[in-house]
């Protein structure tokens, strides 16, 4: 059959199937207008009458036109057009029923029952006359009367629909639900609105002049400012594949025309609740970020700014903090008789608690160290202080040593920390062995032991935290002690500052852009009997 003949057959089928129910609607509207109390709802009944007249005229003058989409596209377009007055009939009918019920206008309520039944009949007749590929959307038109009301928060809603009747129905219904509603008639106006005003949810018609709903959705999701704004697609087209693409592109949900009020209310409520939860999550993340900023400031304020002046010892410390702040710290300070105290530690935990505990460890160590105690005695006393009152169960791995330039020795104690490296003047790397006692702050009475390392001219000492050797590359391999030793050997003649920079640069290169999960901390010392051979001391 030629396409024109098929289109004529479609028109005849619409008039045959939909015509009788459309005329039944007109009769029901006349009965409604004749109700004694109808004058109290004149505006609403006028809108119902206008929609009924539009439906009757569309059925009478039905002239479907084919395009490149063929017969199915013609069916879809005609369903879209016929559903426009039905949306107004159903929407205004339900609103009027609600108002009449609230005001006790029983005659109007009685007249509206048959009218709404006829509207449902028209939907069935449209589906018979213009069968769709899928009945999924039609299934949504049923209203389960057993669904009880659910309380949802009110919000600011943008309605974008090319039909004035649809916009009016949605604005009236949503306003009665307590929402603030802004309505626009095309896609370009929708884009302008969402970029100029704040909204909590957007109802977006699929087919609009200027810019279709899916194009508006794409533009919104491409902008970081609007990416999280919930969008519900609305359409009279039975095009599930297109709606599925919209949901894949970021739409929260969809609704078919004419709107089911229960579904409309529930889906807007669900979107508003999701937005509320996202805002709570964002607030939490902002609080966490603020906490991290505080922790970074605490950590930064603890680190010493200058190495103690010494004719025989140069030093430098460096830290590259992780995004999630750890508990790394280093310290160096002058002691009596020209000696220098050196400490590197790593507190358990992350964030503000770790930063506060780190500050306490550093303060107590500095308070204990000047009393002429050995490193082991210092760790022992510090352990007693920290473990005596420790409800959070925190602890610190801590290496503490004293450089005595006059005696050319390095006396140290190790409370569960990584073993430092000794870098000989010729480039040989040795790992300092000996004491490796209990973590500090874990158990009262834990013993700590001293060890003594003789120093030669040009020797370097490198202290570090586990973030250096446990750094991970994209292949999940660790940086490790062997790579660290190779870096140290390559910087045998470098100043302490250059040595620290070289270590952290090597670790960053190894990570290949992967953010490190722990702080990177190192301290480098260079010992010399001849002050003329000392590298220039650099501040941290």
Relevant terms:
single chain; 540 residues; alpha/beta; Rossmann fold; Phosphatase 2c, domain 1; 3 domains; five-stranded antiparallel beta sheet; disordered C terminus
What does this structure look like?
- This protein has 540 residues and is of the alpha/beta class.
- It folds into three domains: 3-131; 156-279, Rossmann fold; 303-533, Phosphatase 2c, domain 1, CATH 3.60.40.
- The protein contains 15 helices and 15 strands.
- It has helices at residues 3-33, 42-60, 70-103, 106-129, 136-139, 164-176, 187-196, 213-221, 240-248, 261-302, 351-368, 375-388, 466-469, 480-490, 496-511, and strands spanning 156-160, 180-184, 201-205, 231-235, 253-256, 313-320, 327-334, 340-347, 396-404, 409-415, 421-423, 429-431, 451-454, 460-464, 520-527.
- It has a five-stranded parallel β-sheet, sandwiched between helices. A five-stranded antiparallel β-sheet has the order 6-15-14-11-12.
- α1 runs antiparallel to α2 (42-60), α3 (70-103) packs antiparallel against α4 (106-129) and α10 (261-302) packs parallel to α11.
- It is elongated, with a radius of gyration of 39 Å.
């Amino acid at each position: 059959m030629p396409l024109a003949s098929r289109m004529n057959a479609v028109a005849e089928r619409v008039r045959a199937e939909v015509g009788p129910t459309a005329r039944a609607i007109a009769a029901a509207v006349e009965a409604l207008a004749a109700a004694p109390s109808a004058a109290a709802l004149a505006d609403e009944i006028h809108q119902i009458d206008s929609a009924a007249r539009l439906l009757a005229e569309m059925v009478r003058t039905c002239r479907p036109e084919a395009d490149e989409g063929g017969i199915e596209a013609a069916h879809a377009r005609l369903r879209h057009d016929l559903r426009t007055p039905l949306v107004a009939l159903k929407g205004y009918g339900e609103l009027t029923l609600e108002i009449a019920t609230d005001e006790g206008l029983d005659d109007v309520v009685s007249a509206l029952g048959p009218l709404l039944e006829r509207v449902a009949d028209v939907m069935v007749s449209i589906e018979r006359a213009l069968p769709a590929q899928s009945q999924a959307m039609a299934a949504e038109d049923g209203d389960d009367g057993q669904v009880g009301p659910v309380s949802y928060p009110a919000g600011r809603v943008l309605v974008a629909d090319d039909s004035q009747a649809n916009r009016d129905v949605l604005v009236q219904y949503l306003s009665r639900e307590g929402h603030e509603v802004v309505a626009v008639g095309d896609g370009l106006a929708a884009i302008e609105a969402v970029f100029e005003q704040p909204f909590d949810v957007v109802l977006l018609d699929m087919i609009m002049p200027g810019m279709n709903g899916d194009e508006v959705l794409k533009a919104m999701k491409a902008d970081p400012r609007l990416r999280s704004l919930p969008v519900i697609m609305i359409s009279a087209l039975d095009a599930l594949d297109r709606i599925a693409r919209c949901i894949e592109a970021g739409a929260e949900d969809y609704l078919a025309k004419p709107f089911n009020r229960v579904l409309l209310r529930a889906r807007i409520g669900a979107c508003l609740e999701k937005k509320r939860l996202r805002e709570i999550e964002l607030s939490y993340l902002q609080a966490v970020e603020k906490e991290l900023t505080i922790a970074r400031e605490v950590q930064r304020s603890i680190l010493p700014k200058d190495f103690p002046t010494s004719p025989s010892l140069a030093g430098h410390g460096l830290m590259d903090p992780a995004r999630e702040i750890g508990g790394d710290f280093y310290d160096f300070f002058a002691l009596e008789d020209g000696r220098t105290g050196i400490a590197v530690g790593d507190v358990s935990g992350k964030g503000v608690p770790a930063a506060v505990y780190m500050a306490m460890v550093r303060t107590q160590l500095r308070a204990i160290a000047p009393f002429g105690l050995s490193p082991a005695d210092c760790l022992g006393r510090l352990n007693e202080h920290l473990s005596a009152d420790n409800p959070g169960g925190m602890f610190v791995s801590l290496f503490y040593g004293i450089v005595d330039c006059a005696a050319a020795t390095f006396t140290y104690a190790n409370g569960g920390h990584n073993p430092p490296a000794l870098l000989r003047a010729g480039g040989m790397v040795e790992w300092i062995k000996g004491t490796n006692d209990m973590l500090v702050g874990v158990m009262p009475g834990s013993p700590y032991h001293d060890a003594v390392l003789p120093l030669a001219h040009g020797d370097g000492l490198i202290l570090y935290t586990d973030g250096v050797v446990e750094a991970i590359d994209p292949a999940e391999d660790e940086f490790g002690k062997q790579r660290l030793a190779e870096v140290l050997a390559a910087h045998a003649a470098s100043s302490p500052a250059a040595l620290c920079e070289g270590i952290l640069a090597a670790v960053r290169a190894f990570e290949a852009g992967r953010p490190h999960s722990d702080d990177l901390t190192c301290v480098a010392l260079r010992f010399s009997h001849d002050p003329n051979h000392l590298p220039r001391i650099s501040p941290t």
